[in-house]
Write the structure tokens for this entry.
Amino acid sequence: MAKINIKIEGIPYEVEEGLTVLEAARACGYQIPSLCAFNHGECSRGSCRVCLVEVKGARGLVASCVYPVNEGMEITISSPAATAARRASVELLLSNHSMKCQQCDKNEYCELLYAARVTGAREDMFQGSKTPTTIDEITPSIVRDTSKCILCGRCIERCGNAHGKSVLGFEKRGFNTIVAPAENRTLDKSPCILCGQCVTVCPTGALMEKSEIGKVDEAMKAGKYVVVQTAPAVRAALGEEFGMKIGTPVTGKMVAALRRLGFKKVFDTNYSADLTIMEEATELLGRIKNGGVLPMITSCSPGWINFAEIHYGDLLPHLSTCKSPHEMFGAILKTFYAEKIGVDPKDMFVVSVMPCTAKKFEKEREQLQRDGIKDVDAVLTTRELGRLIKRSGIEFTKLPDEEFDNDIVGDYTGAGVIFGVTGGVMEAALRTAYHALTGKEHEMIKFEAVRGFDGIKSAEIDINGMKVKVAVAHGMKNASVLLDDIRAGKSDYHFIEIMGCPGGCIAGGGQPYVKPQFLPNEDIDILDTYKQKRANALYSEDERQTLRQSHNNPQIKALYDQFLGEPNSHLAHELLHTSYKPRKAFRD
Amino acid sequence: MFHLSEAAVAQINGICDRYADEPTPLIMILEDIQKEYGYIPLEVQEIVSERTGISVAEIYGVVTFYSFFSLKPKGKYVIGCCLGTACYVKGAQRVIDKFSELLGIKPGGTTDDGMFTIDALRCIGACSIAPAVTINGKVYPKVDVKEVPGIIAEYRNAGGAE
């Protein structure tokens, strides 16, 4: 890219051509206060008017997030006119904002509050009309509160990228403008898949996860036997809640924190990821051998399951019937494990810490409970766990490293760890499928072709002369390409992995917010690199394991020997498998 | 919720296909549907979304942004009361209030018998004859509150005769 010369505050700089003033200033070490702007224009561009600066020769102040730099441009950020205008812009936004900051779970990461602080904006400077408020907290996953919305449009863009066709859009006009699903419907009656990607980009508390910390408190208070399990992706990001660099694995500290929070047992969902692989690989090989429905598609991601039921109801027979790993774990804990330790399953309360908001909805599915007992009782996001730890006064960074419980269940292999990143489930399944078909371990262990963040990855693996064709997609926009091919009868894959969130669980809707203004010690391109950094944390944990294939997990072997019989046995089907049913996009 | 006939679905798809080569066809498609059916309910928006790849949320946003588009069926006679500045100072508010009172509906609403819809319009460019009212394209100049019952009766009689 060609370089051009500009001046900021009178000081000459050389910057890349084609950048906006905001991006160029950032590259030169200036953080222009801005609000609606998001990474690479993933927003409604220039709507909030907070990033105003002076550009010599321009008519009036310019919005730096949409104004391109050009040769010889002279930019002033600090002039009295620009600082006053930025402050007024924030004050106008505050005049139509609910200002219930103390009760707002977003306040620590609220970009509006931050913009108000840096610009010196005060509330109550402008009195006037307010947008009629809608608060939708009907789904177990996401709360939408229009009284906190600043109409930045980030959620609309992100939803378009994650869901494919945005569920959210601007509707009505003037002061009545809101961001909502069509007809201002509640999310449960819209095509929303509850992935929570919108929550991760929302600058304020307008979109948030629905907290279940209260449910956990109740269970503790009621004297239940409360156990917790954590998904692989949580350890790759939880440290960020406590100021640790992105990509720092915090497995040991997380376990230590959970013990100090009063959980009777602290388990790793990786154990049941291994169990999932045993069931799923067996199911796949069965379908291949017996002429079953192919390609088979993974079923670990509840956002993807919602999408399949809403938009591809005709393809549901392609989905693996395996429950997602944390649900499998819940089912095993409330049967096999409860009996072993002599606890009544009714008194057991299983909490899952997940990088995901859709898991909150998933646990309520009627297919995932038996005799009125849910497999999993509460789901906390990684962010909620962060809040729980802070609330309890635990100094996370000073905790010792502790090990997960693995008395009867809980051991895990490297294959389970990589479930948290796109391509990981596929890689774990291939390791075990290879062994099942050849009786040998794949000498490479790593299947590089399914790693990385390309939207769609595919590979062909030769197993005993049989060519197994696989594909991996993350984000529903990418998945739709593969699904449309299946619908058209053009897909020759055997096995497809689909994860709802772009990047997989490491960038899930329940993961810590990545907002550059709150991360002064990260590189300026952190929004482009954080997924890889979190993924590396998981891949490195896989490499540290001595056992890296699910079928080599000794406790999984024991579970089959003592309880389930064999993969896909009758009991395994009863406890570890589920069913799906089509739903309309706009339901009454 | 009602269900569209196959013929209606085919017709809507046909309207979408008219603009298949347009880079931004949405408004043109919606205009044609509005003219054809008089309104654009969610079910129709879903069909347009399926055909064009544009999200329902975006289509709904456009429909609710422009007052030309309607989500509900309009009456046989659409009473457009201008509330632009000139008409307003000449008493247009009293005129529209009288229509509302006599028909028992608010501006934007439609009578239960499907006969009348009242629309509040911003300036229609007829300031010299303020306050102006239009009914299905026919313009009534300098409307006085006292004339309102007569205007309604005129259409009710005509409509009743059909």
